[in-house]
Amino acid sequence: MPLRDDEGEPMAERGLVFPFTAIVGQEKAKLALLVAAVNPAVGGVLLSGDKGTGKTTLVRALADLLPEIEVVADCPFGCNPRNPMEMCDSCYERARRGEELKVARRKMRVVDLPLSITVDRLVGTLDIKRALREGVRALQPGLLAEANRNILYIDEVNLLEDYIADVLLDAAATGWNVVEREGISVKHPARFILVGSMNPEEGELRPQLLDRFGLFVSVEAPMDPKTRVEVVKRVEEFQADPISFIEKYRPLQEELRERVVRAREILSEVVISDDLLYLLAETVAKMGVRTHRAEIVTVRAAKAIAALDGRKAVTLEDLRKAMELALPHRTRLKPFEEPPRPPDHPQFLRPQGGRSPGESGGSEGGRDGVKAPPFREERFGTADVEVAGDRGLRLRSESRWARGSRGARITVVDHPHGIPVSYTVPRQGARDIDPVATVVSAALRGSSTVEEEDLRVRVRRARAKRLCAILLDSSGSMAAARRIEVAKGVAANFVKNAYVKRDELALICFRGARSEVLSHPTRRYSEVLRLLDGVKTGGRTPLPSALYDLAVMAKAFKAKHRNAVVIGVLVTDGKANVPLGRDVKEDLERLCGVLRRMGVRLEIYDTRIPWAMDPTPSFIDLIAELTGAEVHRDLGAPLGGGL
């Protein structure tokens, strides 16, 4: 039977969404999304996985599944007409005066947040038309207004600018968007189901943002051939006849929709026993999770899971499922630190025939032999290198660049990214218009119409794209006095600092006949550390080849990113002996000139021990003179004394 609209006419096939209940597998991701739909206060869901694993399909299908909502018909923020706590100031005042609010019903929808969004588009800005026509300062709603009581979806959230992410997550945590800018003071509800997705190959999410997502699910494509075949069959069936396919799953969709509606109704009545709360707190503490969000989110998720099953009491099984969603991304205390193992709590590994706390005598409780939640365990490489022994070296130097702020700041004009600090007259064109300065300029001329001469564009402070390229000498001479250990320690420090600053990172190693780019620019920091751990030493020193690779990489990076900053970190003893052309010195002089003209900043870490006799000449001083690089020496000293 074909789908029909309110007037009985067949619906067009455009915009039809793959049914949520028809998605094969991905049960944990489905559960996380349903939990967020029942209680958005869990803080949103982060889906992490490779491309093509169905992350976006899941989000679109969720919006189509959820029931319609009631909104104030003439409110730009879609306020809840039944709850004063979810009304903007205007709707609240109208309701308080006894005015009847016109109500409309509409489906929830997915509001996409583009990575290129500006703060003005996100939170709202001055309504120029009303300012000119009516002389009032009114808010032109932004994306947060559109997202209120809908699903806000951020694809590739790990690539989102930090200042945009901070504003967004603050609104998600409080449920309100407060706009104090350009003479406007407006507050409106911003209660949305926040869903982010990311491909870990494109970079990690900084821990401050990761913790703000309530639930985390690693989405992986099934490896079972039968399951994969079923995925293909359903997709092909949907593409061939989407209306019939949707009708086929309509009963399951309606059943699940009713479960969500019922869960929302009874959520406030769901309780969790003190025994389960103490068990949760003890488990989280033993795992070393320092944030209180862990327990709060887990409890909220457990209650939502119980409500979805139509129960008003949380069981151990509900808590276990909630912990699997709320704790995995919070178990690492520091970047690159191995996550702690979950404790073998006796109540998670209870004996055969036992009863869990919070479990009734019926069949709703956890099953016998329930194991602790399976948490991901990853190894993120070595920490700072410290080698013991008579000739051991302790790393004790750190780059001035590494000690700096989270990233280089640049001033940009008429470019809609960054924090506004001033305004100016545009040189050519006008993309990033400052509405207040433009209106004031027209007013000073005594005109109510804005002319081209009145246009003013913003001056912003923005974060420059930065690349830290590590050039690691792994030739045979680096094995002497265990220099390679110190070199790896220097490189590891730069990996960690790049992680904190969200800079891109590259790794170039050179030994033998030529250098090798082990990692092109990336934000997969743990992968760079893994590659660093596996570096071997031996052979001659092709230093010119490494500088050539750096120049090629810097040129490509600067061509791709406007105002990019490239830093080359050269860790070596400087004993070059493999030329690109006829002579090593000539090669180095030519390449150093190229790097300096390109604006590549070079830092050199001299791994030689100052007090050791070393007759072989080094090219470090020559490179430093030609590039203006800062040289860091005395990287290590004997443990317990020395320089």
What average pLDDT do the residues reach? 76
Question: Span between N and C termini?
Answer: 85 Å
In the CATH scheme, the class of the largest domain would be Alpha Beta
The percentage helix is 25-40%
Query: What is the structural class?
Result: alpha/beta
The CATH superfamily of the largest domain appears as von Willebrand factor, type A domain
Strand percentage, roughly? 15-25%
Task: Order the strands across the largest sheet as they lie in space.
Answer: 17-16-15-18-19-20
Q: Kindly report the CATH topology of the largest domain.
A: Rossmann fold
Radius of gyration: 30 Å
CATH architecture designation of the largest domain: 3-Layer(aba) Sandwich
Count the domains.
4
Give the number of DSSP strands: 20
Question: What low-confidence regions span 5 or more consecutive residues with pLDDT below 50?
Answer: 1-14, 349-407, 637-643
The number of distinct helices, counting runs of at least 4 residues, comes to 20
Largest sheet: 6 strands, mixed
Shape: globular
Determine the oligomeric state from the structure.
Answer: single chain
Describe this structure in words.
- The chain has 4 domains: 27-66 and 107-223, P-loop containing nucleotide triphosphate hydrolases (Rossmann fold, 3-Layer(aba) Sandwich), CATH 3.40.50; 269-380, Helicase, Ruva Protein, domain 3 (Orthogonal Bundle), CATH 1.10.8.80; 411-463, no CATH class; 466-632, Rossmann fold (3-Layer(aba) Sandwich), CATH 3.40.50.
- It is built from 20 helices and 20 strands.
- The protein is an alpha/beta fold and 643 residues long.
- The radius of gyration is 30 Å and the shape is globular.
- A 6-stranded mixed beta sheet has the order 17-16-15-18-19-20, sandwiched between helices. The protein has a 5-stranded parallel beta sheet with strand order 4-7-10-1-11. Strands 12-14-13 form a 3-stranded antiparallel beta sheet.
- The longest helix is centred in the last third of the chain and has 19 residues, at 483-501.
- 35% of the residues lie in helices and 17% in strands.
- The protein has helices at residues 27-38, 55-65, 89-96, 119-123, 128-133, 143-147, 162-174, 207-210, 225-240, 242-248, 250-266, 274-286, 293-308, 316-326, 435-444, 483-501, 525-533, 543-560, 584-598, 620-627; strands at residues 45-49, 69-72, 103-106, 110-112, 125-126, 139-140, 151-155, 176-181, 184-189, 193-198, 215-219, 409-413, 419-424, 457-463, 466-473, 504-511, 514-522, 565-572, 601-606, 630-632.
- The model is unreliable at 1-14, 349-407 and 637-643 (pLDDT under 50).
- Helix 13 packs across helix 14 and helix 18 runs parallel beside helix 19.
